[in-house]
Amino acid sequence: xxxxxxxxxxxxxxxxxxxxxxxxxxxxxxxxxxxxxxxxxxxxxxxxxxxxxxxxxxxxxxxxxxxxxxxxxxxxxxxxxxxxxxxxxxxxxxxxxxxxxxxxxxxxxxxxxxxxxxxxxxxxxxxxxxxxxxxxxxxxxxxxxxxxxxxxxxxxxxxxxxxxxxxxxxxxxxxxxxxxxxxxxxxxxxxxxxxxxxxxxxxxxxxxxxxxxxxxxxxxxxxxxxxxxxxxxxxxxxxxxxxxxxxxxxxxxxxxxxxxxxxxxxxxxxxxxxxxxxxxxxxxxxxxxxxxxxxxxxxxxxxxxxxxxxxxxxxxxxxxxxxxxxxxxxxxxxxxxxxxxxxxxxxxxxxxxxxxxxxxxxxxxxxxxxxxxxxxxxxxxxxxxxxxxxxxxxxxxxxxxxxxxxxxxxxxxxxxxxxxxxxxxxxxxxxxxxxxxxxxxxxxxxxxxxxxxxxxxxxxxxxxxxxxxxxxxxxxxxxxxxxxxxxxxxxxxxxxxxxxxxxxxxxxxxxxxxxxxxxxxxxxxxxxxxxxxxxxxxxxxxxxxxxxxxxxxxxxxxxxxxxxxxxxxxxxxxxxxxxxxxxxxxxxxxxxxxxxxxxxxxxxxxxxxxxxxxxxxxxxxxxxxxxxxxxxxxxxxxxxxxxxxxxxxxxxxxxxxxxxxxxxxxxxxxxxxxxxxxxxxxxxxxxxxxxxxxxxxxxxxxxxxxxxxxxxxxxxxxxxxxxxxxxxxxxxxxxxxxxxxxxxxxxxxxxxxxxxxxxxxxxxxxx
Length: 767
Fold this sequence. Notes:
Residues 269-417 form the AMOP domain. By secondary structure, the chain is an alpha+beta fold.
């Protein structure tokens, strides 16, 4: 916001954005907000780069165009990423500059610079988004036709041709090479010298026409190449040398290299894979136990889908996409824990059946399996086991091929990757604001505060979490101002994370800003950012997942935002602001900045005072003020507009035709009725009612039994030796019954019921 302090200068000749993008200079600005404020340095467009596409796989090799700068065709271009990784750029026949993205061992936004003097100086700069290899669109990769055949080649009757297809326009070449690369992690596990490496192995096909299709009959790889069992294919123009790094490339997906394994594998895949499985089992025994530090799973599917700050859909098993759950038969939906575990960077996965019950590996191979390497990687990336996608392949996926897919030793795999149940799972608490601001606090208190300004919704001393809201005047359908407000922008940060702001622009478009710059979700809907993950659905529901496990969800409707904040249990007694003190006690919800409290219930006028007390200041504001309107109304104006007096008690006139329709629409929802009367709009009322219902449903899904405040799980029960059991649900009230095989008789309990205490009734049965 420093970019707004001065008026437009007259003399701007001496300041330049060369080497200075993102800075506020003496006479002009090189910050992203300078364009809408009209205070950019004259050469801002030249040195601060806009690129297309803005993202690509972390494997690199993607050609991107620099849109705003025309360069001399004879320039020697060098592109430098993160101030150290250099790739060669070029100028095309239209004078447009291009860079090639590099192979990176991390995801997220990477700064890059461009040199036109053969690497002496790098005055131009921009950012590149490096993306998890599984999250880039299929069109950017070459396709292994019938991928299962590639990954099972040589096992039970899998033979014949393999076919690779790609978009031939993706590479500007008449002839191409196809290379095989392998991935390994070397050094001592969990030590400083543990290193990740993608390595060129050999060229599978050379100088073949770039037609977009290649078929071949695979033969076992020569020499020790066949010891590499996880890897990838790379297609490059034939003009480059074998294995040359950071050149224009099209990569396949990472896959199990069954098709190139040696004769020993082809002669007896089961024996080869069994030996590998046993060796993996031995190695696992010597590695630290990561299971003790991963978060427990939510007990029910409803909880798993509601706890959006800590769990996110696993793309490999998604109920929204038809539940195609290849690795988890019997499951309809799986989620993954968003954050990796603190010490070992391990991942958690939780799968559920059609009844919404968690599936455990102890009962079914379709059960959820935790991961030594989190599939999405974890900051600071760069080193095992934190490499996005690939560490997970080495520790958790290729081993699944050894034990479960290429041989019949799945029990060995599941012994090392048992499902976590939900005995220590505690749901988060939720608070929401919607409509002409109606608030529901973490402890469930409802109130309405219609101030106009910028306010602290919640802040916490635990992680320096801050979520701030801006309210603006609502309008009647005819365009005149109504005497109520609505939430028009929210901004948030935790510790020293990136700052995210979601707002309605002046032309009522929903915008997401990352550190003051508008984010474009056209290429990527998921972004790994500093201290948080950001996700946008196709219909613009925004979720921010902070590293503490706190989550923020924002939706737009009728020109106003609906916001929900989800906080894990550790935030109890660590919150303040308009959402109150989260501690299960509504008596202290109206706590002021100076820690004095106002009693519940309070009058609308008292609530107006309480809200005004939580107005923020320019010094601590997270908002971006990049238009004259925002500057005048919120930066230079008061943070709480004391002269704006809202309607406290809207009048219900029985003769008003709108009242009849309102009663039909709102029924007994007081927030809906209030908003119809104050905005004269049934749409606004309908949107408010829906937001209110959604909040109640969310709380119900998170806390199915309010009297217990958590879902009780009694934990897994085994069947007796020489007997069997009926039932795989281990939650409160469930019954598991036991039967002995023929010729055996049962002692102990015939059936056991999960009790409120979290213990099973009766005694352990035996046959």
